[in-house]
Amino acid sequence: xxxxxxxxxxxxxxxxxxxxxxxxxxxxxxxxxxxxxxxxxxxxxxxxxxxxxxxxxxxxxxxxxxxxxxxxxxxxxxxxxxxxxxxxxxxxxxxxxxxxxxxxxxxxxxxxxxxxxxxxxxxxxxxxxxxxxxxxxxxx
Length: 140
Ligand code: SF4
Hints:
Elements: H1 2-16, E1 18-23, E2 32-37, E3 43-47, H2 52-63, E4 66-67, E5 70-76, E6 82-87, E7 91-92, H3 96-105, E8 107-109, E9 117-119, E10 129-131
Parallel strand pairs: 5-8
Antiparallel strand pairs: 1-2, 2-3, 4-7, 5-6, 6-10, 9-10
The structure holds iron/sulfur cluster.
């Protein structure tokens, strides 16, 4: 009877806990990290990381994944028709589409210098969209 309950509990754990696999991108070794999460997404265990930096990376990736976003915006009078831009810091992964919508609305005019702010505080995230290269005007 007691054994049945233990088996039932183990079966429920298997149904509810989930495993996720990640590749650590902190260094070129690229360790394969396996994480076990409870149904609420709390990390129960991590394995496969060869160092503590991998654990820090995996915890951040599993709880609050962020990305540096690169894209382009329309530019008039520039050498090219698009200006490369980048977020000044990493942004939450689940806000990338919102930020892309704002980027797609923008048109700038040459000349532009590298690191010029193209959109300040995009989507209220406290992060700017900045130019990632300079572009002279072709109509000086
Ligand atoms: S866990 Fe450590 S050794 Fe492995 S890829 Fe990440 S940083 Fe490199």
